[in-house]
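In keeping with the milestone schedule agreed at the kick-off meeting, the structural modelling team has produced records for the first pair of proteins. Each record is given below as a sequence line and a structure-token line. The laboratory manager (R.T.) confirmed that both were archived under the project's standard naming scheme.
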Amino acid sequence: MKRLLIQCGLLIFLSMSLSSCYKDVIMPSVASTAPPQFVSFSSDLQPIFTTNCALSGCHVSGSQVPYLSSGLAYSQLIGGYVNTILPTKSTLYIMIYGDMSVHIPSASDKQKIYDWIRNGAPNN
């Protein structure tokens, strides 16, 4: 009987512990009514990716995809990480405001990426 009570107690404790674990991602409200600013991928975005993302063990060739090193970043991002029809549904947009927000903390850098997507993600 004592063993049954201990097992029930452990089961209740585990179920309460596991049910309380969740990750809350708060997406920012972006003013999509303002027209997007011109953003150059090569001169505005690539330096952001090179400085913050294309580091050893992160988004360099042979490590985490997408590879964001110079020369690879554009083709990697266009290959499924950018949605120009619904920019806020882009994987890139969701990641820079979610899990990867600590790596790109600057709001102006995030806005550049968002504007680039809204402009059709040109290779310029």
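The second protein of the pair:
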Amino acid sequence: MKCLADPLILEKAGREERLIITCDLDFADLLALSARTLPSVILIRLQDQTPGSVIPRLVQVLSECHEALTNGAIVTIEETRYRLRRLPIEPSPH
């Protein structure tokens, strides 16, 4: 199995119109800094990362955020909520 660096995974997922589901903060950070609109990323930030905990939350987010994920977004799944940020992420004014 060939391992790709995170930036190459982002590039490939965008080109193939795929969604990245990860626990790795680097993907969301790279995507935010790149000013890209795709691929979308779902970032799982749950303490209990067993399938019984993750899958119901993931199904909820996929259902409720389908349009945003199709158009480009980062969704962070937390214990009691999820946070959706549409892409591209604009830099904050200083």
